[in-house]
Structure prediction request, 287 residues.
Amino acid sequence: MLDQTETKSYGDFIPRNLRPLIDRAIPHARAQISGSPVVAIGLASSGQTFFGVNVELPGVPLNYSIHAEQFLVANLALHSELQLKGLAISTNGYYFQAPCDHCCQFLKEVRDMSDTIVVITDPTGQSGTFKPFSTLLSQESISRENVLRFLELSYNSIGFIDSSLYMDICINSGCNHLNCRALRAATMSYAPYSTCPSGVALIDRRGKVYSGVYMESVAHNSSLGPVQAALVDFVVNGDGQEFKEIVEAVLVERKCGGLSQEGIARMILEKIADPDCIFRVLHCKNN
Prediction:
């Protein structure tokens, strides 16, 4: 796992200092389909640096891949960071590029992202500049105001439709039971547009649990599904394991008329997890 405790200031967030971090993060990328690893390094409001990498899922269409920028935001959420102050994206540590249009729309869901400084260099890497994220947005970029944003504390007041499931839910928030972790992820998910929160918990052969929350973009196609968010946790904290080590998964979602994560989650897990992976879906309703 990449060390995430290095403190940076704006003055230190320059290509020369970022190259060692890029070099250390690149091996964590999983770009076996495209062959093009991408790393995103983010400066959080706490002063710590965090990484994101692109993750392509074996046997799954590339449009379900995790972009490095999406990975970075999910990683920030895992560590309860509140803001992204600086962003640098590179494939080699020498040339730093702007986020793609897909990820620009996703990043717009982060509060105060307009003021985030993005590191950009020319193709040779010899000269660079800092640009506010707001200058990278196209005029067609979609925006909605007065909604919850990524990295802000959220709570969806939902409960199991099958009340008997509460017999197995722990009061202790630090437990490693799949039902508990998936329910907790669903209550913390970001779904202000569909109002269909969901969360996923995974367990590997060693009994270690990983979880992820649904992170919804107003543009819809740039949203990050809960199973992909849980895979971010797996890559960050799974000690380099392959996805085949995942042996059980639970999806908790609010039963909505227009949106369900079940089909996509099932399809992804059937392709990447252990062939005998157990997948369960637990439905919730608003309390």
About this structure: Helices lie at 15-25, 68-78, 101-107, 178-187, 226-237, 262-272.
